[in-house]
Amino acid sequence: MMSLIDIVFSDLFVSADPLEPSRYRVAPGTPIQVLPAAAEADVDSLRASFICDERVEFLLKWADLPLRVTRIDHVGGTAWAVSRGASRSSTLEELNIHPMIAKAMIEIGKMKGGLVATVGSSRQGKTTTSAAMFVAWHSVFGGNGLTVEQPPEIPMHGPHGQNGYIYQCEVLPTASEVEREAEIAKHLRRALRSGIDRIFMGETRSPSEAAVALDAATTNHLVLANFHA
User: Fold this and answer.
1) Looking at the 3D structure of the chain, how many domains does it have?
2) Using one digit for the tens of pLDDT, what is the confidence trace for 65-96?
3) Which residues contact 197 (CB under 8 A, 6 or more apart)?
4) Under DSSP, is residue 105 helix (H, G, I), strand (E, B) or coil?
5) What is the DSSP track for 128-193?
């Protein structure tokens, strides 16, 4: 019997209505297809988990498969957009980045302060590239790093290399952008008081958040932030 694990997908779309077929795409930019009926039993299990979770965005590990879930409240009810996550951070080499460029990216990790921006459109690999660089900094140069994400997308928490450690922190879902910015600022204030050397901001969504990142970068902390452009 076919399982959801057997299906290669980058995105899965699940309706709260069990009678509505689930849909998926194999990779970003590819056509959306109807999920084979044999895999809907697994989707029923996922749907039950989604319904019990009131968060708008969250991570879920299902059958060793990391999933990023975003709730969509629409005029017909509720649905969830599910993206397949990574089980670990890729290396710069695995991302096929030229060795000379990869070396230059790693050397940035020596800096005692400043803002490094990863810029690109949605689903183009900003977080994947940034995570690989952030992990490389701590693997090579050691020190303490902290991430501020909603939700954390790529596992980075824990020791890296001989003397590096990354603390991965989740910004809790909030009712408004103002509350979100306050939550991010709270994490950054703690980082500034906790002997953190480098900060990773998973997604910088507003001018106020960019200002917070810039402020942290001027206090001898190296900040790596993602921006949509």
Assistant:
1) 2
2) 888 899 999 999 999 999 887 778 899 999 99
3) 143, 144, 145, 221, 222
4) helix
5) HHHHHHHHHHHHHH-EEEEEEESS--S---EEETTTEEEEEEEPPP-SSHHHHHHHHHHHHHHHHT
* Domain range for 148: 99-228
CATH number of the domain that residue 124 is part of: 3.40.50.300
For residues 7 and 186, which has the higher predicted lDDT (pLDDT)?
7
pLDDT for the residue 176 = 67
pTM above 0.70, yes or no: yes
> With left for phi above 0 and alpha for psi between -120 and 50, is residue 199 left, alpha or beta?
beta
Residue 154: inside a domain, yes or no?
Answer: yes
Q: Give the pairing of strands 77-84 and 158-160.
A: unpaired
Question: Which has the minimum average pLDDT: 98-107, 131-140, 164-173, 186-195?
Answer: 186-195
Confidence of residue 174 (pLDDT cuts 50, 70, 90): low
Amino acid at 192: L
Give me the pLDDT at residue 151, please.
Answer: 76
Cβ–Cβ under 8 Å, residues 154 and 89: yes
Last residue of a domain, one of 40, 58, 84: 84
Q: Would you say residue 93 lies in a domain?
A: no
